[in-house]
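quick q for whoever's on today - can somebody do inverse folding on this one?? i tried earlier but teh output was garbage lol. tokens:
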């Protein structure tokens, strides 16, 4: 027995193993996935040697499938958004520097004086900011992105279940096709023996020539059925190889598992409610839908945060250089600048002394451009600020965003409810189909046993010339039809039964 540990998609409940001759349809997921998953030459993995078990086929498909990879990348994007929202709580810090040349009449960026000359200017600044309060929007954004990331992880599991479903469906289709080939080859062998026997009886004069012709016609029909069944084997082998994203189906073979007789299984009880309650707690698509409802609720809180004031803190530092800025520098020399006469006191009062003056010793300066480092040091400026923004009226944008978020919550709740409804219906349908397939198999088995007896009796009568070839072929075809119905009912029951095992959390084995 081969055990498959990978869970299948919830759509498995509505899928059918299917008959190769249009008795049972393909699963919906298998019909849609196969055309959209052609082998990619750049990504396909060469087919390993040896036959594939179901578990091995699932493992290869999960490794190579492009849809799973795309879902994983989507989850990584959600994780990046989560990291970014957490980083939004950190302060911001930025630095900038610029250099410019001004020609002609311009305003000096540092002296703010008009001048008509070529000026080189450098500006240096650094700023920092911290969001102190923004209506809890940052915190709610983190929680929402965390929920979205968890939902993305559930989407990965759902995608893996999709692939496992399609692989299991195609695997069972291929097993069924191979069994029908063996059954049709056995019928051809029987028909060949019947033609040889009829020809001997014709030569002995025991039967009419029409009996030989009828036997040959039946042989041709059986050989056509073999070719049809072989074509179906080739089709499902190719489909399974494409699901595994293998470059070619040449040499691709599977291990045929030993499957139990449905009559040996316990009678299936119709208990969809119990299975549903178990499945609700296990299915990743249900978990993802619930997480997205919570995420939508966080979106409402984010929108409501726009009603609150915003408070932020900022700090900056600035300095610069201008080639037009000049400074005075001592030359080391000095001059005496006359400041007035020197007076002498006389009995009649103060009297200026002729030729004698008072002077002030004044140092000499020269005008030179101010250096770069001294300008950067002298022009240093600092700033601290608190910014408070109070929303009053902004075109009702906040109210509209809140209303949209509330509607988004209702939509998410409806999607979650739809996911649960679909799951319940799938389980109910799986139970109904499994019970019907088990009953149909038992009836087809009894029919096959009865028709086998009738066929043996018809064969004896035909060999003794008591039955014409047409009636004998009718008896033979009735038996073959019953056998085909029994085989198809067997695989359909197995498929449906494994669906219910999957929903109940048990390992699926073939």
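ok took a stab at it. sequence:
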């Amino acid at each position: 027995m081969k055990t498959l540990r990978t869970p299948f998609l919830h759509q498995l409940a509505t899928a059918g193993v299917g008959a190769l001759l249009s008795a049972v349809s393909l699963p919906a997921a298998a019909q849609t996935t196969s055309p959209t998953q052609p082998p990619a030459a750049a990504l396909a993995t060469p087919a390993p040697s040896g036959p594939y078990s179901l578990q091995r086929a699932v493992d290869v498909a999960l490794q190579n499938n492009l849809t799973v990879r795309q879902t994983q990348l989507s989850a990584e994007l959600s994780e990046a958004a989560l990291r970014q929202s957490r980083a939004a709580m950190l302060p911001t810090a930025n630095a900038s520097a610029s250099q410019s040349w001004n020609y002609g009449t311009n305003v000096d960026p540092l002296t703010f004086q008009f001048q008509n000359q070529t000026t080189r200017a450098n500006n240096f600044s650094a700023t920092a900011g911290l969001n102190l309060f923004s209506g809890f929007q940052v915190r709610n954004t983190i929680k929402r992105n965390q929920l979205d990331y968890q939902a993305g992880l559930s989407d990965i599991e759902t995608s893996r279940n999709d692939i496992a479903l399609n692989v299991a469906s195609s695997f069972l289709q291929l097993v069924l096709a191979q069994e029908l080939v063996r059954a049709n080859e056995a019928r051809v062998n029987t028909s060949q023996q019947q033609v040889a026997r009829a020809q001997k009886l014709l030569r002995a004069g025991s039967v009419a020539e029409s009996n030989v012709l009828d036997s040959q016609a039946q042989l041709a029909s059986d050989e056509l059925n073999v070719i049809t069944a072989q074509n179906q084997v080739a089709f499902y082998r190719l489909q399974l190889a494409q699901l595994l994203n293998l470059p070619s189906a040449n040499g691709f073979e599977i291990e045929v598992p030993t499957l139990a007789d449905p009559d040996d299984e316990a009678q299936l009880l119709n208990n969809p409610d119990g299975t549903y309650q178990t499945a609700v707690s296990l299915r990743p698509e249900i978990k993802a839908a619930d997480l997205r409802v919570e995420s939508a609720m966080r979106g409402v809180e984010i929108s409501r945060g726009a009603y609150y004031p915003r408070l932020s803190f900022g700090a900056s530092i600035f300095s610069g250089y201008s080639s037009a800025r000049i400074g005075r520098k001592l030359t080391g020399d000095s001059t005496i600048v006359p400041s007035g006469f020197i007076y002498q006191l006389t009995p009649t009062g103060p009297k200026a002394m002729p030729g004698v003056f008072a002077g002030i010793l004044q140092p000499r300066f020269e005008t030179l451009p101010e250096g770069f480092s001294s300008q950067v040091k002298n022009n240093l400026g600092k700033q601290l600020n608190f910014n408070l923004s109070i929303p009053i009226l902004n075109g009702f944008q906040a109210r509209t965003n809140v209303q949209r978020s509330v509607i988004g919550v209702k939509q998410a709740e409806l999607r979650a409810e739809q996911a649960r409804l679909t799951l319940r219906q799938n389980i109910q349908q799986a139970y109904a189909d499994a019970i019907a397939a088990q009953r149909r198999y038992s009836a087809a088995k009894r029919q096959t046993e009865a028709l086998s007896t009738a066929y043996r009796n018809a064969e004896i009568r035909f060999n003794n010339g008591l039955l014409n070839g047409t009636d004998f072929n009718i008896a033979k075809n009735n038996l073959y039809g019953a056998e085909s119905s029994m085989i198809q009912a067997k695989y359909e029951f197995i498929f449906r039964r494994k669906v219910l095992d999957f929903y109940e959390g048990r390992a699926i084995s073939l």
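fwiw The first helix runs from residue 28 to 36. also Residues 330-369 form one domain. so keep that in mind when u check it
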